[in-house]
Amino acid sequence: MNMNQQKPITLLICALGGEGGGVLTEWLVDIARASGYAAQSTSIPGVAQRTGATTYYLEVFPVPLADLGGKRPVFSLNPVPGALDGLISSELLETARQVGNGMASPQRTLVISSSSRTLTTAERMVPGDGRTDPAPLLQAIGAQSRATQVFDMGEMAKNCGTVVSAVMLGAIAGSGLLPFSRQAYEDAIRHGGRGAEASLRGFDRAFAQVNIQQAQTALVSRLLSEQELPASIIQGLEADLSHIFPAPVHEMLGLGHARMLEYQGPDYADLYVERLQQVLRAEQEADPAAAQGYATTREMARWLALWMAFDDIVRVADLKSSASRWQRVSGEVKAGADDLLQVYDHFKPGAPEFAALLPVKLAAHVTRWDRQRVARGKAPWALPLKIGTHSVFGMLSLRLLASLKWLRVRGSRFATEQSLIEQWLSGVVRGTQTHWQLGHEIALCGRLIKGYGSTNERGKDNLMHVLQHLATGATFASNDLRAAAIAQAREAALADEAGKALDQTLEQHGAPARPVKAQPIRWMENPHRKPRAARAS
Amino acid sequence: MEVSFSKEIESLRLKSGETFHGEGILAITKALLQSGVAYVGGYQGAPVSHLLDVMVQAKPYMDELGVHVEACSNEASAAAMLGASIHYPLRGAVTWKSIVGTNVAADALSNLSSPGVLGGALIVVGEDYGEGASVIQERTHAYALKSTMCLLDPRPDLGKMVEMVEHGFRLSETSNMPAILELRIRACHVRGSFECKDNQPPAISKRQLMEEPAAFDYAKLAHPPVTFRHEKLKTEERIPAARRYIVEQQLNELMDGPRKDLGIIVQGGIYNSLIRALQQFGLCDAFGQSEIPLLVLNVTYPLVPEQVAGFALGKRAVLVVEEGQPEYIEQEIATFLRRRDINTPLHGKDMLPMGGEYSVEVVAAGLAAFVARYAADVDTNSATGWLQGNAERRNAVGTQIAAQLNQPLPVRPPGFCIGCPERPVFSALKLAQQDVGPVHIAADIGCHAFGTFAPFSFGHSILGYGMSLASRAGVSPMMARRTLSIMGDGGFWHNGLLTGVQSALFNGDDAVLLIFKNGYTSATGTQDIISTPSDDAKFNASDKLQSLTATNTTIEKTLTGLGIQWLRTVHTYEVEEMRQTLNEAFTTDFNGLKVIIAEGECQLERQRRIKPWLAGLLKNGKRVVRVKYGVDEDICNGDHACIRLSGCPTLTLKDNPDPLKVDPVATVIDGCVGCGLCGANAHAATLCPSFYRAEVIQNPNWHERLLGSVRGALVRAMQTT
Questions:
Q1: Do B640 and A47 touch (CB under 8 A)?
Q2: Is B611 strand, coil or helix?
Q3: Of B688, B638, B652, B644, which is closest to residue A306 (Cα–Cα)?
Q4: What are the respective helix, strand and coil percentages of chain B, to the nearest 5?
Q5: Could you give the domains of chain B?
Q6: Which residue of B has its CA nearest to A42?
Q7: For A228-275, how does the pLDDT look when each residue is reduced to its tens digit (9 = 90+)?
C-alpha cells in the first residue's frame, strides 16, 4: 500500500469513571512514542468521572515516524463510527451501547469486552429483577464485529490484585492490534511505579487470554446458549413424600419441606405437605396427562414454602446468630486471621413486629395505640437498635429472640398469614380446576409476597387485590385472557414501588385500581394565607 | 484538589529544545509562560480546570518567575482581573468554562473591551459543546461579536495551539482588543507533543514592581462620553489592526489543492474532523494534503474580508464548515461576497446540520452533498456506503435490542461517588416528602445536581450556578407548600450568597435553603474555596477519618452576620435528623428564610487524606479500624427499597443464593468506604433488618485481643450451626 493511503489504527476504549481509563490511554500514547510511532489520544471525561460511562480514543499511525520523511499524520479527535479497528470495554452494557451507536463494524472491528456487568441504578432499583439479559447484548456485539473476545475483566483484575486498566492493556497487547512489542507495554507499566507487579500479573493474564482465540469463541457461544441455572442437588427427600408427589416436584418440595422443619417444626411441615397436596390433586384433575410437567405444583412448592416461612424477628434473630453467618461476614469483609471483627446489626422493630408475637386481642391493643399515635401527627413507634452480634449480650439477645418459635404460632401475625395463605391457596386450587393456566398464574403470584413491614403488607395487598378482582370478578372473553391478565398484573406489581403500573394494568382489564391508603400528612400553612385567615375570623 | 499535578508542573519548566508531551490544556498553560504572562486567574470548570489547578499547584515556580496566580471566586472576578491590562503593559490570562462562565463574566468583558487593553489579555475558554457536554449548547462566538474581542479557534494540534497563544497576546496588544482562545473538550484532552521555548519572566511582575500608578486617563474608563469614542475605535482602528496582524502573520492557513475550482472554509477546531471526512472520499491523504483547497480559520473573529473574498473568487463553490448556531461566520462571509459582487455559490448550513457537534460522520454527510453537486467525478460509493452502513447497523442493533429486551438499553448517567456525603441528604429528602408531601425543588449546579437522576429524580429547575434560591422567588409565593432550594458551597460563594440569600432576606421571603457544605467545589475537581478546611485543621486532626468541614464556619458566620435567624447545621450522614430538620423547616411557624447547612466533607478529599494516613499506620503496625457495610443474603427480601433510597454504586445486586427464591438480593461489593448511610437509612426508613456494619480492627491492642478471645469463645458457644 502506498504510504499516503496508509490509515491510522483506531481504537476506542470504553470505561466507567474511576476505572483508570485515563491512565490506560496515557500508557498507550507513551508506548507509541517509546516505540517510535506517531499517536494521539483524546477523551471526554467531563462529569462522567463520577461513576458514569466515558470513552477514550486512540489513533496510531502504523508506519514508524522515522520512515515518514518528516511528514506528520493528521489524526481524528473523534472516534469514527464504522471505522474502528478495535473497541475495548470494561463493561458489557457499555460495549453494547457503543455497538448500538454504530461504532463497531463487521468488516473491520475487533471487539474486546468484559463479560462483567456493573449494574445501572435503573436496573438495581426495580423491586423484582430489573437486570438486563446479557444474551441480546452478546448477540449484538457478536453480529457487529469482525471478531469478538469476551471475558470477565473485573474478575481477572481482582484475582491479580490489580485494576481493570492493566487487564485492558494486556488485552490490547495480546490482540496484536498495535505495532508495539510486548516489552514496550511492560516497560510502560514498570515506569508506572506503584503496584507495577500486580499490574504486570493482570497484563500477563489478559495477554494470554486474548491470544487463545478458540477458547473465546467457545465462551461466547456458551454464554449465548446459557440455559437455566444448573440444577441444584435435591436434598434427602423423605420416602413417603417422594411417593406422594411426582418427580418434577421433588426438588422444590425437598427445599420447601426442609425450610418448614427449620422454620417451625414437623407439624408445620405436615401442614405444608397437606396444602401442596390440594394443589397436586387439582392439577392432576386439570392436566391428567401431566402435559405441563406438574409446573403448578412445583412452583407452588416454592412460593408456599416462602410464604409459610414468612420473615419475622424470630427468624431474623435465628439467621443472624448462626455460625455460618459469622463465617460468611468474616469472608465478605476480608478479615485477616489476626484481625478482630466486630459486627453490628441494624434492627428497627416497630409496634407491628411486637404485636405479631402477641395473641390477637393483645395485639389489637398495641396496634390501636400505635395508630392513635400516628393520628396525632407522630411517627409510628419503632425502636432503632444497633446490636453487636460479636458481643455476649448481643448474641444472648438474638438467641433469646430466636427461641420464641413457640410464641410465633400463638401470635396474631401467624393467624393472619395462615388465613391469607388459605385464601390464595384456594384461589390456586379453584383456578386450576377451572383452567390449568389460570391456576398456574395465580400460583406464580406468590412472588409478590416478600420481606418485612410495609413491603410485605404491600405485597399481600396487591396479591389479594389481584385475587379478588382479576382471578374472580371482572369479565373476560376466555380463561386464557384472564390468565394473561393476571400474569401482566404480576409483572406490573413488580415493576414499581408506588404501584402505578399495577393500577394501570388493573384498570385496563376492567378491574378497579387499588384503593388509596389513608396516610397522615403533616400540613404546612403558607404564611401568605394567614392574614386572610385572620381577617376571616 | 482531586489530582496531583507534580509531573505536569515539571513539564512547565521545560526549556528551549526540549519536547513537551501531554494534554492540550497543559500545553496551553506552558504556552502562557512562554509568552511572558504576568498574571493568571480563572474559575474552574471542565474542560479547563487543569490550567488553573496546575498553576495553583505550581505556585513556588510561578513565584520564581514573578507570575501572579489567582483562584478567582467566579468568572466575573476573573474577567475583571484583566482590568490590569487596560493601563499597564501586563500580559494577563484568565480561564473558565464556556458558555456558562462567559455569561457570568459578560459585564466585565463589556467594560474591558470598551476602553481596550494595552497589555495582551487572553481568555482561555473551554468550549463545552457537543458529546459529553454538561452545559447549554450555545456559542462563545456571540460574545466576541458583541464586545468586539478577537476569537481564536486553533487547529487542535499542540504546536499550533501553543503558537496561537503566543500570537493571541500579540494580536491583543496590536489591536487593543482582548482575545478569547476557545478550546473544545477533545482539544483540551488531546495528547500530543510540541517543541518548547524558554519561559519568559514578565518584565513587570511580582518581582519587578511598578513604582507609580498610571496617570489619570478618563478615556480608559467605560463611561460616557468616552464609550462613544470607544465604539468608533473598535471598528475604525482595532479591527483593522487585528486584520493586518492576522494577514501579516498568516494566522489563518491557506492549504492549496489541485481542485482549485472548489474551496472549503473551516474553523480551526474542526479541521481534523474535516480532514478525516475528506479522506473518506479519497480527497485527502493521511498527512492532510487535500485535493480541495482549504482556508483554515485559526482566528474566527474578526474575519479578513479580502482573505475570504480572495479565496472564494473564481471558484465554482465554497463550503463553510462551522459548528453551532447561528452561522455567524457563514453570514459574514456572505456579506463580504455580496458587497464585492462575488457570485461564488456559498454553502454551509444548507448542507450541514444547524446544531450539534461536527463529528467526522456529520461533516462527511455534508461533504457528500457538496461533492455530489460540484465534483461529480469523485467516486463517492465507498463514503456513502460507509455512511449508509452506519445507519443500517444502528438500526439493526436498535431493532434487535428492542425486540429482545422490550426496552432500550438502560442509561448510565454520572452519579454521586461511593460514600458521597450528599447522597444521605437526598435519602432524607425522599423520606421528608413522604411526611409533608411533595415540594417544589429548585436545583442548582454542582455534584448535588446528580440528585436529579435516579433513584432520586429531584429538582424542578436549574437556572445557573448558585441560582437556586433566586429561581424560586416567583414560585414560593404562589405555592401552598414551602419550596426547597438546594445549593452547594461552591455555588453559594460563586453567586448564591448575593443573588439568593441577600435577595430573599431583603424581601422577607419565606423560603427553605439547603446548603451542601462539603468543603470544596467538588464537581470541577475539588478545588479549594474560602470555606475549605484549613491545612492546619487537616494536619492537626487526630482522627483523620473524620469529616473536617465543621472546622471551617465561614458560611455560618456569613449567614448569621447577614441576619439569618433560622439556621440549622446537620451532619449529612444523620439521615433521621436531616429528615426531621427538613420537616421542621417545611412546617415551622417562622416565616423568614430558613437555612439548613448539610455539613459533610467531600468523600474524594477525605479518601485522599485517609488512604496514605492508614497505609502509614498499617506499615508501622498501628491499630486501624476498617469499616464495611454488608447485607445478609438470607435476610434480604429482594425488594431493593434500600437501593431506591441510596443508589450507592457499591450497593448492588447478585443472584439469590436461596434456590427457593428468584429475585436477586442486594449486596455490598468491594469499594464500600463504610460511610454509614446503609445503617442510617435502615433506621430512618425502617428498611429490612439485613444490613450490618462490620468493623475490622487491624493490629488490635492487647486488651482488645484478650476481650475478643473471651467474647469469641462465649459467642461461638451460643451460635447455632
A1: no
A2: helix
A3: B638
A4: 45, 15, 40
A5: 6-197+214-247 (3.40.50.970), 252-378 (3.40.50.920), 423-606 (3.40.50.970), 623-718 (3.30.70.20)
A6: B190
A7: 444 444 556 777 888 899 999 999 999 999 999 999 999 999 999 999
